[in-house]
Automatic annotation (TrEMBL):
This is Streptogrisin C. Signal peptide: none annotated. Its EC number is 3.4.21.-. One of its GO terms (molecular function) is hydrolase activity. It is an enzyme of class 3 (hydrolase). Residues 126-184 form the Peptidase S1A alpha-lytic prodomain domain. Belongs to the peptidase S1 family. The keyword Signal applies. Residues 227-381 form the Peptidase S1 domain. Keywords: Disulfide bond, Hydrolase, Protease, Serine protease, Signal, Zymogen.
Length: 391
């Protein structure tokens, strides 16, 4: 647990004003503004987060720990600095592997106060209040008359450049949007960008998807093939090239491979709007996390998630079953006493937290009970060189 001490910095005017001091990389803790609540004790950083920072930010383990610590201190310091600098405050940010704090001000005379507090000072033209006012003008204009995504895909206060940035694929249209908003044009700058943001939807086992806008099946498990993400499902649900939409009818992906009869498996690559999740839709819409795909032995409990009947459980009766469908023989499937109904096809079978397979077919229903077969998942992963998304 970090320790904190308090002290004040005496200003030229003779009054004593408390300011949050930041000493980066020295082991000296930050001090909080006595007018602000004391920061909460900092929890230990999970090892998984440190490992991810090392991987994605190119840091050593010690650098990752130091950065987290300094970022925490910077966050604790910022409220005091903002309060002390008042209307001249123009934002704050950290940079570099050591997360060094920079504080911006429109008043050059405040630079000494900032550096005395352990941060770097940046003297800029526009206050944060001025930037925020311009951003609000853009927000109001967009609420009344939304720009196209090509004209303005995003806009934001950028304290590092002391401006409000408007991203646009068509700068001329963006300039017209800015002019119509009434925002201070000296504060706003347009940056050409091809970015087209869109909402991200989750891929979860058991949820519905539609094939070519018509027939419905269920997602099995999220998977990856190289830099492509998607999901596995039943082969009888679609052929290579068929397109899919999600349960929300938003464009989702394309069948990349499919085998039926003989086997009953397929995989769909999803577009960038869909995020693979290591989850299966469980009871009452809860998320059941997938940890692996270890095959469960005969007699094991197993549960199925599908878009028609939801979550149902039973036991594994036999592995390596051959079943005769009207379209032909499917071999190597597993027989269970779990019920299922049309539309559940392709949905996830899971035992504990281990993925077992995707729903193939069967008989009966969830009113009287029945027999359901699933295509084991491991042969699907092997056939297409897929990696299961796990938690």
């Amino acid at each position: 647990m970090s320790r904190r001490r308090r002290h004040g910095l005496e200003l030229a005017a003779g009054c004593t004003v408390a300011i949050a001091a930041l000493f980066l990389g020295t082991g000296i803790p930050a001090v909080a503004d006595p007018g602000e609540p004391s920061p909460r004790p900092r929890r230990e950083v999970p090892p998984e987060m440190l490992a991810s920072m090392q991987r994605d930010l190119g840091l050593t383990a010690d650098e990752a720990r130091a950065r987290i610590s300094n970022e925490y201190r910077a966050g604790a310091a910022e409220p005091g600095l903002r309060k002390t600098l008042g209307g001249a405050y123009a934002g704050a940010w950290v940079s570099g592997n050591t997360a060094e704090l920079t504080v911006a001000t429109t008043d050059a005379e405040q630079s000494a106060t900032i550096t005395a507090g352990g941060a770097k000072a940046a003297v800029v033209k526009h206050s944060l209040n001025a930037l925020t006012e311009a951003k609000r003008a853009l927000d109001s204009a967009a609420a009344e008359r939304p720009p196209t995504a090509e004209a303005a895909s995003a806009w934001y206060v950028d304290v590092k450049t002391n401006s409000v940035v408007v991203q646009s694929a068509r700068p001329d249209e963006a300039a017209a949007f800015v002019a119509a908003s009434g925002a201070d044009r000296q504060v706003v700058r347009v940056v050409e960008s091809p970015e087209r943001p869109g909402p991200l939807y989750d891929l979860r086992g058991g949820e519905a998807y539609y094939i070519n806008g018509a027939a419905r099946c269920s997602i099995g498990f999220s998977v990856a093939q190289g830099d492509r993400n998607g999901f596995v499902t039943a082969g009888h649900c679609g052929d290579p090239g068929d397109t899919t939409t999600g349960s929300n009818r938003v464009a989702q992906g394309t069948f990349q491979g499919s085998s039926f009869p003989g086997n009953d498996y397929a995989w769909v690559s999803a577009n960038a709007d869909w995020a693979p999740r290591p989850w299966v839709v469980g009871p009452e819409g809860s998320d059941v996390t997938v940890d692996g795909s270890q095959e469960a032995p005969v007699g094991s409990s197993v549960c199925r998630s599908g878009s028609t009947t939801g979550w149902h459980c039973g036991t594994i009766q036999q592995h390596d079953t051959s079943v005769q469908y009207p379209q032909g023989t499917v071999s190597g499937v597993t027989r269970t006493n779990v019920c299922a109904e049309p539309g559940d096809s392709g949905g996830a079978f899971i035992s504990g937290s281990e993925a077992q397979g995707v729903t193939s077919g069967g008989s009966g229903n969830c009113t009287v009970g029945g027999t359901t077969y699933y295509q084991p998942v491991n042969p699907v992963l092997t056939a297409y060189g897929l990696t299961l998304t796990t938690g």
